[in-house]
Amino acid sequence: MSLRATPEAVAREICDAWLEGGPDPAEKAVIDKVKTIEEDARHGVNKPRR
Question: What domain range includes position 29?
Fold first, then answer.
């Protein structure tokens, strides 16, 4: 799909629908791991990653 050929109203609908969706429950473990890594980085914790 070409964005240049997409009318603004349709593009807004696509974006709104995409932003309304939540994360896939199957990805919860990965999301939690990334959150932990980000929180540790904010607090200066340097843990080895597996």
Answer: 24-50
